[in-house]
Amino acid sequence: GAGVSQSPRYKVAKRGQDVALRCDPISGHVSLFWYQQALGQGPEFLTYFQNEAQLDKSGLPSDRFFAERPEGSVSTLKIQRTQQEDSAVYLCASSLRTGSNSPLHFGNGTRLTVT
Amino acid sequence: KNEVEQSPQNLTAQEGEFITINCSYSVGISALHWLQQHPGGGIVSLFMLSSGKKKHGRLIATINIQEKHSSLHITASHPRDSAVYICAVGGNQFYFGTGTSLTVIP
Fold first, then answer.
1. Comparing C-alpha atoms, which of A29, A39, A13, A43 is closest to residue A75?
2. Residues of chain A with pLDDT under 70
């Protein structure tokens, strides 16, 4: 698979549960982004990695959200004590270089539903 | 926050019509991306541009850096063009528009 892969594709969680969402970027891509997309809205920035370094986490909505990319490849977005307002599609994107002058490649997203 | 504004929000066109989607932004950028998102599907990058104009098949994207404005044009529209088109700008942190939902009717 040459594209960005996200798993699971769908996740249903009961309120209060912890969830972990995985992103496998394209091999060799330096930049990795996580976005949250609510129904009918454009993606909202959550966090950005350059290799293993989390350079920007200003978009994470609360301290219940945590992201890591320990070896500079696969990334995990963890949400603790999920709430209904966390229901959204979580998108991962990667690009070969840093900055916006490099095409973005998106995964198909993980649709999280919190009941 | 309205770093990126797109218009129109929704657009319905007859097959064969020429379509224009607009994007205005308020932040400094290195490049602007036009993205396509199909229902239930992932997002595909259509264009990345930092100046001038790019063309790919029936799609044309233009950008005016001074006016902080970009347009996406679709010539001879087709029902398979029906999708949400999203404008994204920025540097390391991208700002996205809310998208333009296009429906092309046969």
1. A29
2. 1, 99-101
